[in-house]
Amino acid sequence: MRDQFGREINYLRLSITERCNLQCIYCRDSNDCFKAENELTAAEISRIVAQMIALGVNKVRVTGGEPLVRKDLEDIIADIARHDEVKDLCMTTNAQGLEKRVWDLRRAGLQRLNISLDSLCKERYSKMTRGGHLSDVLQGVEASIACGMQRVKINTVLVRGVNDGEIDDFIRLAKEYPLDIRFIELMPIGKLGEDASRRITSGEVLEGHPELVRIAPRDPNQPSEDYAGEGFRGRVGFISPVSHKFCADCNRVRLTSDGHIRMCLGHNEETDLRAALGRPDEVLLETIRNAVFNKPCGHAFETMFHSQRAMNRIGG
Ligand code: SAM
User: Fold this and answer.
1) Tell me, what's the pLDDT at 183?
2) Which one, out of 171, 200, 212, 293, has a CA that is 20 to 30 A from the CA of 103?
């Protein structure tokens, strides 16, 4: 399906919950409390996903909140995987408790994992996530590789004054292990992200690492700009939505866990699909098609944009 600017929209970022077992400092406030009541059921998700696929979606990323907090995650994955049209089925996770479920997820049809990891130091990791266990992430990464997930990627949000002292350590990981480390630029969503002085650009990182050379992307549609140095087993990617806007190539549609289509992280407009869920498939299909057609041209991060939803409520 194409939007009003002719962009082909084929990538669904599917948030299945707002709930999370962590409270990352840049993602959500520590006192927020999220309940399961407003979440789409697995059957509702299945119906919407089927319509999205009928409209041309061929890549699905399951996200949240934290997808692992849903007990029916494996069923949701298996339901998506039964569609042959889906060529890429992946998930973003903080990996808390991943190790014991990763084999079932693989068997259900999950192909790839992006794992969030903002610090390699136990204490700092726990502080940044407000209670997470670094050991869980490391075991999760190992288990993901062992069970045959393709190209495990590590997502690291750099926050000045918090984890910027670890940039060299993360780059070393990409040198020594077959892992892609992706530095994600802090977005102005949430209180911390709205403080621009906390943002670290790819330019700043690269300045200190002349050994890193730009290499071709694995996928022409990927937002990350990839680099590697001589002898690197993995690569270092930069996803820089603020300093290197990639909206012109955006192919994403987001579904929130409470049933809203949000076409852009940097715009608050959403379309509620709940009413259409009670109607025939053609109505649901048309509602999705209209929402996608009206995708904004680009995000509004450079203005005084303020997101009405925290990141965990959108689906990062
Ligand atoms: N719980 C899962 C996880 O931790 O990967 C999936 C959801 S989380 C919201 C998805 C991604 O959003 C994570 O990689 C996280 O680091 C990123 N994220 C959240 N808030 C952000 C912000 N303000 N700027 C940049 N990335 C952010």
Assistant:
1) 98
2) 171
